[in-house]
Write a structure and sequence with these properties.
Elements lengths: L18 H15 L6 E2 L11 H14 L15 H12 L10 E4 L2 H7 L8 E6 L4 H8 L3 E6 L18 E6 L11 H14 L2 E5 L24 E6 L1 H4 L7 E4 L5 E2 L2 E2 H12 L5 H11 L1 H27 L4 E3 L5 E5 L6 H12 L1 E2 L1 E2 L10 E5 L4 H14 L1
Helix pairs in contact: 2-9, 3-9, 4-5, 10-12
Bound molecules: pyridoxal-5'-phosphate.
The site of pyridoxal-5'-phosphate has 13 residues, from helix 4.
């Protein structure tokens, strides 16, 4: 039946999300054409190792509390229980970063926060790096916002710069270490964005979902940069640092000093969350707290170290073959240049046909990703080692 209602026309501005379905289609065809081939998936953006023991123990205990009248809990506070907000604040504190618990808003993940925060803004120019995690662009397109892509390239190590930008009052999305490129801002690189925001009255939305993978002396939080508390919101997640992709917990930091048009931003976010969000389950919040306290973090970081070794294996092969890449060092992602001048999809097909290895074509993350390819470190060590051997032969 054809209804007489109007739908949101802006959804027609969002391109069909065919990347992962197209990959699945081609992998299925390859598997059917040669059932004996051992296909290795290095395209996966999801974690594969289990939650840390400290996390599951805390969640088991919380489940038992929920089963007793005296300790049962109903609706959780919209912004997170104080124990979780304190644990997040303490986590920042252990890196020497001062983020008061009252400025932390817990949520069911970074993707939701990235998409939902659009609600609190009006009609601004939106700056989004290319290539990038697609949620920033798509959520702004769905809301009918004016978006401008910031092209990045090999020359800038796939990191956007504010050079040459004119105008004011932008909302700028930055992600470091980045997805899909794994590239991480230096302090100076990030400072240039904070200075730009301060100069132009712009707001930075900083996605630090991969902070746990930082090994070099690069920022893991935007608040390591002087002035960021006046112009930056930070969104983070336990998905990649503690394996919470299926458990769901993230947070948004909105410094109370940030105002626009005389209105503190955090007031709008509190109003938005109180209206449309009803908090994360108590059991999950206890697990998240445990993941952020020293023992849970130590255990979770063992998984991160495992993924890091995989990333180093991939990077080693690319270095030996003289192939340009970013990432791997501060990231589970390795963003490589396709060899022999191939396009992203041509290299995808070559790698799948000749090596039975699956990666992700860079063109799927934006125009500037054409000619590049993303490999991830979330597989098993054995499979990654075998895939790297096969990859190296093709380079
Ligand atoms: N931000 C970036 C840059 C990501 O790559 C991802 C997931 O891949 C997310 C956020 C999503 O995080 P969450 O699982 O907390 O929604």
């Amino acid at each position: 039946m054809e209804l007489k209602i109007k739908t949101n026309d802006n959804f027609s501005r969002v391109s069909e999300s065919y990347l992962f379905s197209e990959i699945a289609k081609r992998v299925k065809a390859r598997a059917e054409s040669d059932p004996s081939a051992k296909i290795i998936r290095l395209g996966i953006g999801d974690v594969t190792l289990p939650l840390a023991p400290a996390v599951t123990e805390a969640m088991e205990k919380a489940v038992r509390e929920m089963g007793k009248k005296e300790t049962f809990r109903g609706y959780a506070p919209e912004y997170g229980y104080d124990f979780l907000r304190e644990a997040i604040s303490g986590h920042y504190g252990r890196f020497g970063i001062d983020v008061p618990a009252a400025e932390i808003y817990a949520s069911d993940g970074a993707k939701c926060d990235c998409g939902n925060i659009v609600d609190i803004f009006g009609d601004n120019g939106i700056l989004i790096p290319d290539p990038v995690y697609p949620v920033y662009l798509d959520s702004n397109l769905m809301a009918g916002r004016r978006t401008t892509l910031l092209p990045t390239s090999e020359e800038t190590g796939f990191l956007p710069t504010p050079d040459g930008l004119t105008g004011e009052g932008y909302i700028v999305y930055l992600c470091s270490p980045g997805n899909p490129t794994g590239a991480a801002f230096t302090r100076d690189g990030l400072k240039s964005w904070v200075d730009f925001a301060a100069r132009t009255g712009s707001l930075i939305i900083y996605d630090s979902a991969y902070e746990a993978f930082v090994t070099e002396d690069v920022p893991r939080s935007v608040y390591e940069i002087e002035g960021a508390r006046e112009c930056a919101v930070e969104i983070c997640s336990l998905s990649k640092s503690a394996g919470f992709t299926g458990t769901r917990c993230g947070w948004c930091v909105i410094p109370h000093s940030i105002k626009a048009g005389g209105v503190p931003l955090y007031k709008l976010w509190e109003r938005r969350q109180a209206t449309k969000f009803n908090g994360i389950p108590y059991v999950v919040q206890r697990g998240a707290e445990a993941a952020l306290l020293p023992e849970g973090r130590r255990q979770s970081m063992e998984n991160v170290a495992y993924y890091r070794k995989n990333a180093a294996l991939i990077a080693g092969a690319l270095r030996r073959r003289g192939v340009f890449f970013t990432g791997a060092v501060n990231s589970p992602y390795v963003w490589m240049k396709c060899p022999h001048g191939l396009t992203s999809w041509e290299f995808f097909d070559l790698l799948l046909d000749r090596a039975a290895v699956v990666g992700t074509p860079g063109a799927g993350f934006g125009k500037c990703g054409e000619g590049y390819f993303r490999l991830t470190a979330f597989g098993s060590a054995e499979a990654t080692e075998e895939a790297v051997g096969r990859l190296e032969k093709l380079l």
